[in-house]
Amino acid sequence: MTVIDQLKQMYPSIITRKPEDHKIFSDYVWFETDEMETIGIRHEELDAHSTELLSVFLTPVSLDQPAMTIREKNWSSLLQEGQWNGEIESPDSYRFVLFSIEDSSTDKEIVQEAFQSLFPQEMPILWKTDRDGFIIEEVFSEQQETLSFEGIPDVLMSDFYTKIQFFISEFSSDVKYAPFILEWSEDGARLAKERRLESVVTYIDIMPYIYLDSLSVDKWQHIKRSVFQGIEQETDLLQTIRVFLESGSNTTLAAKKLYMHRNSLQYRVDKFIEKTGLDVKQFEGAVITYLALLNMDH
């Protein structure tokens, strides 16, 4: 039984088409097999999780991608073949803004227009699948302001009625590093999705999780036992300590965030130190505790 035959049992709507056919079926999500056959499955038979699973052994293809600009073609050539057209001006600096849209049926051209409206000038946007792609934020002068993405997912969600997640890479001034930065960013975006982090995640936000991701299950279980022994079920206490650490160990600020009296918060901090032996007021104890708390959420 072929892969397509097996998939037909799970997705009755599946259709196949040859690559040379040019008609676009917008009701379908498209994939390519190792035998270069293009198959489509209707949107309503897929959710984000199943699409991601299919993408492991099939190659997602986008048949209705908006026509690329000259700069987008140049970036695509650089990222796929390592070649930058010397006749095209390279930016002083750039960063990748990866995006993932929950609803794959959202019109790409409308989404692309919405993304472009966020910037003071047109930015290259490349799509990888019906759901995923990336913006290349190019900077050509020191006076050019870079975009802050705070609050943007909420605005876009109200426009498109679907969730959009962003992962933002660091800036680089050398285009030769672009393929490596994009690959690193794609790993970071994957990890952010697995950890169910906020709708906007930066390369800095993801760094603690990179360390945590390398932990084996056995080692994590040992760390959890040694750090949280006897208090694992005290969720209020653990949440207090996390807010305290995320507030820079500022008792007054943490108390305001938790709507509690400063003395009550101080009591909980002292209680945690007494029960665990980890002094979260000191750098070493704070780092160990915070990383463990992040992994507890996962």
TrEMBL record:
InterPro entries in the cross-refs: CdaR-like_regulators (IPR051448), PucR_C-HTH_dom (IPR025736), PucR_C-HTH_sf (IPR042070)
Protein name: PucR C-terminal helix-turn-helix domain-containing protein
Lineage: Bacteria, Bacillati, Bacillota, Bacilli, Bacillales
Highest taxon of the lineage: Bacteria
Occurrences of domain PucR C-terminal helix-turn-helix (ranges): 237-293
